[in-house]
Amino acid sequence: MSQPPIPLFNLKKQHESLKSELNAAALDALNSMHWLLGPQTEGFEKEFAEMIGVKHCISCSSGASAIQIALAAAGIGPGDEVITTPFTFIATTSSISLTGADFVFADIDPRTYNIDPQDIERKITKKTKAILPVHLYGYPADMDAIMNLAREHDLKVIEDCAQAHLATADGVRVGGIGDAGAFSFYPSKNLGACGDAGAITTNDDELADRCRSLRHSGRAKDKAYEYDLEGSTLRMDEVQAAILRVKMRHLPDWTDARQKVASWYEEGLQGLPVVTPPTPPAGYSQSYYVYTIRAEKRDELQQYLKEKGIGSAVYYPVPLYKQPAYKDMGLRPQDFPNAEKAAKEVLSIPMFPELTEEEVQRVCETIRDFYEEK
Ligand SMILES: Cc1ncc(COP(=O)(O)O)c(C=O)c1O
């Protein structure tokens, strides 16, 4: 008898378990006729700021807009350079470009897949105004080293937290370490809306005011038709805020469950020619947006898993310096050897809070079978 498939993500299980609460919350928001910047948004912002441990949360339309708004609010624009990683989703760099600034890549640390602080230092020029670390896969970037560099060179730090809700660095939740954090609530994320949504977190009062203005057409504080900035229409809507408030209550438990799943994998994959995610140093913890291994014969393994009904994905097969969108920039793959190698070897295997120990064992056994057969 063939066994049921194990998907990479399973949003259905979570949605089914919260369906009646989500439906009620969405309907309430709809019938309140507030649509935008009403009580649900206000409640969400207060609760999310508390959860991350920051003074301000400014909700917005997506993770991409959160990065763009945070950078612009931090004063980043044309003529400035922002140092970031090439091993990320393109929204990280396209959001920099939308501010008018240029992005500059630093290679990654081969162990954590996150931006390498030593390479950041080599890339700093007179034009550098900010560092944009991404907490990839939910593993926090080396914020200690990054904040030291930022202080030394007077740079802003905007954290891309799209994959790292509730991960911690130096004992602090990500999004509360740099000048601002940018979160995505894309449906598959650790905290996902039922559509697009995002948020900026910060402890800086003035930066928060500018973010609030920029997401709302650049509107001056408490003024109806006066604009002190040029912003855009980048707000989160009330229905998404109401949905996120329901789901947010479960986020700590979901994060614990993901960490439990990771510990089963760590055990089950021992002795195989795969590299499991690193153990974070004291004060750091990961939120496992995905569980990513480095695997010998990666493409063959992925095909084998597919044949056995097990989902997997490569994040990311084409680093950003090789993307057609950036082909005219003259970027050279040999300048990013660690990203180059990672793109050929990483594989994300099923990870979601509802995964059972038996399912994780089945994934591990299937990987074991693959290496025994090959
Ligand atoms: C690392 C990273 N940055 C930014 C984003 C952009 O978020 P969104 O899709 O909500 O715009 C994503 C998510 O898709 C992401 O994974």
Describe the structure using short key phrases.
12 helices; 2 domains; 374 residues; Aspartate Aminotransferase, domain 1; binds pyridoxal-5'-phosphate
Overall description:
The chain is α/β, with parallel strands linked by helices and 374 residues long. The protein folds into 2 domains: 11-248, Type I PLP-dependent aspartate aminotransferase-like (Major domain) (Aspartate Aminotransferase, domain 2), CATH 3.40.640; 251-373, Aspartate Aminotransferase, domain 1, CATH 3.90.1150. 40% of the residues lie in helices and 13% in strands. It has helices spanning 11-32, 39-52, 63-73, 91-98, 117-123, 143-153, 205-214, 238-248, 251-268, 298-307, 337-345, 357-373, and strands at 56-60, 81-84, 102-105, 128-132, 156-160, 168-169, 172-173, 180-184, 198-202, 274-275, 291-295, 346-349. The strands form 3 sheets. A 7-stranded mixed sheet has the order 1-9-8-5-4-2-3, sandwiched between helices. The protein has a 3-stranded antiparallel sheet with strand order 10-11-12. The protein has a two-stranded antiparallel sheet with strand order 6-7. Helix 4 links the parallel strand 2 (81-84) and strand 3. It starts with 10 loop residues before the first helix and ends with a helix. The chain binds pyridoxal-5'-phosphate. The site of pyridoxal-5'-phosphate (PLP) has 15 residues, from helix 3 and helix 4.
